[in-house]
Amino acid sequence: QVQLVESGGGLVQPGGSLRLSCAVSASMSIYAMGWYRQAPGKERELVAVISGGFTTVYAESVKGRFTISRDNAKKTVYLQMNSLKPEDSAVYYCTQRSGASWNLPSRYWGQGTQVTVSS
């Protein structure tokens, strides 16, 4: 069983930045990794995914503001979030896909970290 532990969430003002981290308990180099988010009353939605070959895919709503990256040696995935908006407020979840391609189903999920964007 692989464990994913998110960190870095918190309260930030509109226009601010946060960097989320996801620590993975096992080697992740051959797997695509992603971030999802879920706001109250809404469905969980894809934010960004990075494949095993470092191809990145972003939701339209975050393109140009968020950057996903991975450090396989540290077994950590990051989500750099800039120019944050109130509508970015949500619980952010890290996920590991079932293989290297970004569009495969997710196999493991973290517990989530809360991001609140408010003045």
What secondary-structure arrangement, pairings included, does this model have?
Elements: E1 4-7, E2 10-12, E3 18-24, E4 33-38, E5 45-50, E6 56-58, E7 66-71, E8 76-81, E9 90-97, E10 106-109, E11 113-117
What does this structure look like?
A hairpin with a 4-residue loop joins strand 7 and strand 8 (76-81). The chain is built from no helices and 11 strands. It has 119 residues and is mostly beta strands. Helix content is 0%, strand content 49%. The model has no long low-confidence stretch (mean pLDDT 97). The chain is globular. The strands form 2 sheets. Strands 2, 4, 5, 6, 9, 10 and 11 form a 7-stranded mixed beta sheet that branches.
Return the structural class: mainly beta
Terminal Cα span: 40 Å
Residues in helices, as a percent range: under 10%
Q: Low-confidence spans: pLDDT under 50, at least 5 residues? A: none
Give short descriptive properties of this protein.
single chain, 7-stranded mixed β-sheet, globular, mainly beta, 4-stranded antiparallel β-sheet
